[in-house]
Design a protein that fits this description.
This protein is α/β, with parallel strands linked by helices. It has 16 helices and twelve strands.
């Protein structure tokens, strides 16, 4: 395919883990016709139709069920595109986000920015891809985050690490004798989720510089305003939801906290190091009152784990270590963020511990919060679709 894939189509490409992309053949050339191209496995499973491509200003527009073209010279340059091993060119992550601006809401654009700047991606393989992935060596389940991103000689791109969840399933128990009724027992297994860990595709300063550069372009103001809402480097969609619900202004549905830091670096004292088994910790969301030099840490607890229960033990030790240093640590789950009364109780408690003024929300602010909650605690797989 000679055209440059961009916008939502490119977003789906960048979401796809390299070990999944490696399962698919190259795309046919567009000379074979767009119908043949649309039937390629990588298109039907990952890119989807209509395929969105970029054309230079003055080029021919095409809008059909198979393809859509947009005029965006900034996304067609050599510096903005990359050649893929699948046989087509794609906009780089920054240009991908910029060309998405005309197709998605501002909130979805912010979520997409958080994902590209973060340590995670959201992707659900097809059933056939799941089978192939299960055949692969699963040693990565127990690897450390550091070793995950180390390349060996046979790799051009680091494999992403999948996040697993504990699920309970029933399994038949072998019973002696021919007339014995078959029995089942409930066991816990690990199941792959749609959450994957990988290195950030974009550095936060790169996003801000690019947003300032593109501000005067068409759709640039929307892109710039969305980039200003990205305040840190998150590790999961639930963290992003927590950040936005706590940091956005009250008029936009947030709690209005200022001085909010994401995955903030916190050195540990000697006694805290003995508890955590490490010299530093990273608080998911750290809210600071600079006047009294006091901080509250919000730890986002999802229902997924990385390979084994060791991570859960690590989180408990980390929380205990931070508490031993005098930090107020709040463990927050999805259900707590999704419940207006529980979220309000967390905000009230944070204000009390940090000696900040608590104010009840007006009816309009509560409505804005409800709308924001629905937007950020969404199905991330639907972004850009």
């Amino acid at each position: 395919m000679d055209e440059i894939v961009c916008a939502n189509t490119a977003f789906r490409y960048w979401r796809c883990p390299p070990q999944v992309r490696d399962l698919y053949p190259r795309l046919p050339n567009s000379e074979d016709g767009w119908r043949a191209l649309s039937q390629a496995p990588f298109v039907t499973d990952i890119l989807k139709v209509p395929i969105i491509t970029s054309t230079e200003p003055g080029g021919v527009n095409c809008h059909s069920g198979l393809r859509t073209t947009i005029h965006c010279g900034d996304a067609s340059g050599v510096d903005s595109t990359l050649e893929t091993e699948m046989g087509f060119r794609v906009t780089n992550p920054l240009a991908t986000l910029f060309t998405m601006a005309r197709f998605v809401s501002q909130t979805d654009l912010v979520l997409a920015m958080y994902e590209f700047c973060g340590w995670f991606s959201v992707f659900e393989p097809t059933a056939a891809a799941e089978v192939e992935l299960s055949k692969a060596d699963d040693a990565a389940q127990d690897s450390t985050t550091e070793s995950l991103f180390e390349l060996d000689e046979s790799q051009d791109e680091a494999q992403w690490k999948r996040v697993y969840a504990r699920v309970k399933v029933k399994e038949q128990v072998n019973a002696k004798g021919t007339n014995v009724q078959k029995k089942t027992k409930e066991i816990t297994k690990l199941k792959g989720t749609s959450l994957w860990m990988r290195k950030p595709l974009i550095e936060l300063h790169e996003l801000n510089e690019y947003a300032r550069k593109m501000k005067s372009r068409k759709w640039g103001a929307k892109f710039y305003n969305a980039a200003r809402m990205v305040s840190g480097i998150a590790a999961s969609p639930l963290e992003v939801a927590g950040i936005l619900l706590l940091s956005l202004p009250r008029s936009r549905g947030g709690a209005g906290f200022r001085n909010v830091f994401v995955n903030d670096f916190t050195p540990l004292t000697a006694s805290a190091q003995s508890i955590a088994g490490q010299k530093v910790c990273y608080g998911d969301i750290v809210i600071v009152n600079p006047t009294i030099m006091k901080a509250g840490i919000v730890e986002i607890q999802g229902e997924v784990i990385h390979g084994s229960g060791a991570v859960l033990d690590h989180d408990a030790k980390r929380m205990t270590a931070l508490q031993s240093m005098g930090y107020d640590v709040f463990l927050v789950t999805h259900d707590m963020l999704n419940d207006a009364e529980q979220l309000d109780a967390i905000v009230r408690s944070l204000c009390s511990r940090l000696e900040l003024r608590y104010r009840c929300k007006t009816k309009a602010q509560k409505t804005a919060e409800m709308e924001l909650r629905a937007k950020v605690l969404c199905n991330w797989l639907e972004i850009g679709r």
